[in-house]
Amino acid sequence: MSAARLDPIDRKILAELQADGRMTNVELAKRVGISAPPCLRRVRTLEEAGYIKGYHAEVDSRELGFEVQVYAMVGLQSQAESDLSEFEARCRDWPLVRECNMLNGEVDFILKCVAPDLSTFQTFLTGDLLKAPNVASVKTSLVIRSAKDEPGVPFEVLEERLSRMA
Amino acid sequence: MSAARLDPIDRKILAELQADGRMTNVELAKRVGISAPPCLRRVRTLEEAGYIKGYHAEVDSRELGFEVQVYAMVGLQSQAESDLSEFEARCRDWPLVRECNMLNGEVDFILKCVAPDLSTFQTFLTGDLLKAPNVASVKTSLVIRSAKDEPGVPFEVLEERLSRMA
DNA sequence: CGTGAAACCGTCGCCCC
DNA sequence: GGGGCGACGGTTTCACG
């Protein structure tokens, strides 16, 4: 596991910045128990090593007028690698598609889509997704309500596992 | 739509902070074309009004040792409101469950789970999820690979729609 | 919304362990 | 190697026009 290269302070930094990405460096340093300069050096190292891929404001999608969230299960005709990656590239170009994951089992991909309203989504569904080459089947499920939407990873679980291994 | 209360500068602020949540306020002000003090006032207002729910570092889950992502489709025995919200509350307590959305159609909930390894997930699956009261069926799909994972909403689509309405 | 000023913070060089 | 101290320049954040 690559996380083995990180010491407890690095993991604490990552957990703190995942919880509050706009925290000032001095506040972060205080929380992880070192002074500001080495703390900032660690953050820069974590960014350059790719452990931190970016920082994002979490916006309220419904307040902003994005009232529709849909999961789309997509089956392809060909699962040749070139066809898979061609479909993935298409997904990256569609702004409505926020997540695209390849799955095992009967369905090939699951897409999470966000749209301002149903008609915008249906225009995308019939105009883009269903017309894309190699798409064999699409089953969509509307999100009725969202109970939990936490970005990132559960650091608690990692710490628990590391302490079990020690 | 509540987004109508926001002017173009506010929407630009939200889009910029979604793309880079650690941008300094002066940089943000420059990009949206106003000076720093009113820009900061707008950000604070957006935060207090709930348009911005938080800021998060995006961490590389695989680099950190979270090698397993699973979608779990959950069917319940009872769909009474009290039973639905009881299940949702349980999901909020499970750190492995990052997203929990209620769906229309044959399945009741879709859960996105993140775990360090398969055995951690299976411990959760058999020990917690399948044993939870009211859970009738669980179908899991492993994520083979992730092609896109963008947090947030597609502001481009919103701007396009607003300009069509104007 | 902009200007100016004061406090704070990010950042660097240097020294220490 | 990493951590701490001090100082400079930029930033945040006031009060005010």
From TrEMBL, chains A, B:
<dbReference type="InterPro" id="IPR000485">
    <property type="entry name" value="AsnC-type_HTH_dom"/>
</dbReference>
<dbReference type="InterPro" id="IPR019885">
    <property type="entry name" value="Tscrpt_reg_HTH_AsnC-type_CS"/>
</dbReference>
<dbReference type="GO" id="GO:0005829">
    <property type="term" value="C:cytosol"/>
</dbReference>
<dbReference type="InterPro" id="IPR011991">
    <property type="entry name" value="ArsR-like_HTH"/>
</dbReference>
<keyword id="KW-0804">Transcription</keyword>
<dbReference type="InterPro" id="IPR011008">
    <property type="entry name" value="Dimeric_a/b-barrel"/>
</dbReference>
<dbReference type="InterPro" id="IPR036390">
    <property type="entry name" value="WH_DNA-bd_sf"/>
</dbReference>
<dbReference type="InterPro" id="IPR036388">
    <property type="entry name" value="WH-like_DNA-bd_sf"/>
</dbReference>
<dbReference type="Pfam" id="PF13412">
    <property type="entry name" value="HTH_24"/>
</dbReference>
<feature type="domain" description="HTH asnC-type">
    <location>
        <begin position="6"/>
        <end position="67"/>
    </location>
</feature>
<dbReference type="GO" id="GO:0043200">
    <property type="term" value="P:response to amino acid"/>
</dbReference>
<protein>
    <submittedName>
        <fullName>Leucine-responsive regulatory protein</fullName>
    </submittedName>
</protein>
<dbReference type="InterPro" id="IPR019887">
    <property type="entry name" value="Tscrpt_reg_AsnC/Lrp_C"/>
</dbReference>
<dbReference type="GO" id="GO:0043565">
    <property type="term" value="F:sequence-specific DNA binding"/>
</dbReference>
<dbReference type="GO" id="GO:0006355">
    <property type="term" value="P:regulation of DNA-templated transcription"/>
</dbReference>
<dbReference type="InterPro" id="IPR019888">
    <property type="entry name" value="Tscrpt_reg_AsnC-like"/>
</dbReference>
<keyword id="KW-0805">Transcription regulation</keyword>
<keyword id="KW-0238">DNA-binding</keyword>
<dbReference type="Pfam" id="PF01037">
    <property type="entry name" value="AsnC_trans_reg"/>
</dbReference>
